[in-house]
Amino acid sequence: MRLPLIAGNWKMNTTVSEAVALVKEMRGGLDEVANVEKVVCPPFVSLQAVRDLLKGTSIKLGAQNLYYEYKGAYTGEISPLMLAELCEYVILGHSERRQYFNETNEIVNKKIKAALKAGLKPILCVGEKMEENEAGKTEEVVTGQVKSSLADIDYTPSLVVAYEPVWAIGTGKAATSQQANDTIGLIRRTVSGLYGKEVAGQTRILYGGSVNAANTTELMRQPEIDGALVGGASLKATDFLSIVKQTAAVKKQ
What is the pLDDT of residues 204-244, one digit of tens each? Predict the structure, then answer.
């Protein structure tokens, strides 16, 4: 059975002091929940402070991005080696990186390779835009992103994939549980084509896109969905804890 994973992507929110306060508010409750892997992904500037707060707990730490070079004259960038001393996971290929910072599948591919080489666990994000969805191109876009992003990469059990339809991110309009399950099933078949059926059965694939405390149980009841990449709701301690608890309750059945 795949261990469910709930990751909170804080995006460009919280100062260091706000990040510390948020972790303190939800740390005890999250640590008590078993059978779910919990990950928080604050901004770079808060990684050290949050890391110190999470020591001795079952809560993992992740970053929101990295650059694919290990060092050099790349002002403002963060290398895999810098992150490897601080955290375990890293979100890569998020639609906001693709949209606002022109990241291509080829760039994402380089980042995944660099992350794996440094011992980090990538959370690869894929998902289609609204116009692509309405044009019936979901399968073409999503499978293309998976194949290109994972090109020439040997399978590793540390790899996590997150399906985040762009039209559902931050809009309050989540995919239906059936839509999410069907597309994640498509992603699993794509992974199977790349690495084999056994590997695909072991790969955790999350849903992301307006996940909240009200729709978590319905989403987690779907057999292909192994957890969630949570945005806005991860900034509210009670909501994030509720999402984690609901996931634990549903997935242990």
Answer: 999 998 899 999 999 999 999 999 999 999 999 999 999 99
The residue behind tokens 């650059």 is 67
Could you give all domains of the chain from N- to C-terminal order, each with its CATH number? Answer: 5-251 (3.20.20.70)
Active site residue 164: yes
Enter the pTM of the model: 0.96
CB 64 within 8 A of CB 46: no
Active site residue 25: no
Q: What are 238-250's pLDDT values in tens digits?
A: 999 999 999 999 9
DSSP designation for 175: P
Find the catalytic residue in 94, 96, 103, 128: 94
- Residue 19's region, left for phi above 0, alpha for psi from -120 to 50, else beta, is alpha
